[in-house]
Amino acid sequence: MTLKLAIDWTPNINHIGFFVADALSFYKENGLNIEIINPADDNYRLTPAKKVELGKADFALCPLESVLSYRVKDQPCMLMALAAMYQEDVSAIVVKDQTINSPKDLDGKSYASYKARYEDKIVEQMIKNDGGKGSVNKLYPDKLGIWETVLKNKADATWIFTNWEGIQAQETNEQLSYFKLKDYDIPYSYSPVLVAEISNINRKKEAIKKFMNATKKGFLFSKDNPEKACAILSKHVPKYDENINLIKALSASSPFFGDQDNWGMMDPTSVDTFLLWLHKNNLETTRFMPSDIITNEFLE
To answer: What's the rounded Cα separation, in Å, for the pair 218 and 57?
Structure first.
């Protein structure tokens, strides 16, 4: 059976387990052929989750809050999160201007946004929690060029993965400051997560279970065999990211992969804390419960 996975960015360390599982025939051993869809193919015209909604992909990688976003549309798409790539948040708001010492200093500054449903409000709330007004100026550049806006001083801040863009910044000696959401009373949840649409899940349960087992094997192999895994990933990384030290990126990532017992698992209590925070801060009017948006069924 062929299954299509829309990844959330051009190939990077967050995707290493998928590419390893494919290259080492872990999927093939389970009777699966996996097609990995790169967002650069259409210059991010369609988001990964949108590709699932339109039936162009079986799975997508996206932040957990994207599941909520698709659930509350005028014509809802019933996405469900099936696995988390990391057991902890490995993202941060990043700035290059060294006069910006904490989020409150972003008042009046510019933020390059991915235009996700809750993103701008989360950033504003982070600034407020630090004592600011939350009056950041939002910019909406092409998604695949967002990181460049900060590096080239066209935006003051954006949201990155510290285990990818953060590693690249180290390699190029960029002096950056990082603001983690949890340090400013925002109980941010899992990102990225693997999602699928519920009716498709119900049709392909056996195949999805096999896909999960093979994917877990790919990520845990990467953790135990970093050089072999990075050699596989290096064949897919775009040229503009070739200066990123893949071994360093994997070293910064693999401690959060989990292990044989908990890879991909999502803690309902942690998810509920984030859902409640979104609701209490009026970022989402619907009070979702964890069971509405996540399942560990295919990991058990």
So the answer is: 20
Closest to 271 in 3D by CA, of 251, 289, 248, 250 = 289
Long-range contacts of 204-211 (CB under 8 A, 24+ apart): 204/1, 204/3, 204/58, 205/298, 207/1, 207/3, 207/32, 208/82, 208/298, 209/298, 210/30, 210/31, 210/32, 211/3, 211/27, 211/30, 211/32, 211/34, 211/59
Spatial contact of 181 and 93, defined as CB atoms under 8 Å apart: yes
Written as six digits, the tokens of 195 are 């999602």
Alpha carbon 134 to its chain's center: 24
Which has the higher per-residue pLDDT, 174 or 195?
195
Q: What is the pLDDT of residue 164?
A: 95
pLDDT confidence of residue 149:
94
Q: Phi then psi for 61, rounded to 5 degrees? A: -105, 135
DSSP string for 95-144: E--TT--SGGGGTTSEEE----TTHHHHHHHHHHHTTS---PEEE---GG
What are the tens digits of pLDDT across the range 81-132? 999 999 999 999 999 998 999 999 999 999 999 998 899 999 999 999 999 9
* CA angle centred on 145, ends 139 and 148, rounded to 5°: 90
Q: What is the mean pLDDT of the chain?
A: 95
Cα 95 from Cα 158, distance rounded (Å)? 7
Cβ atoms 127, 106 nearer than 8 A: yes
> What is the length of the chain?
300
Check whether 64 has a pLDDT greater than 90. yes
Instruction: Tell me the per-residue pLDDT of 183-203, one tens digit each, with 9 for 90 and over.
Output: 999 999 999 999 999 999 999
- Separation CA 163–CA 92 (nearest Å): 10
- Are the C-beta atoms of residues 129 and 137 closer than 8 Å to each other? no
Distance CA 35, CA 37 (A): 6
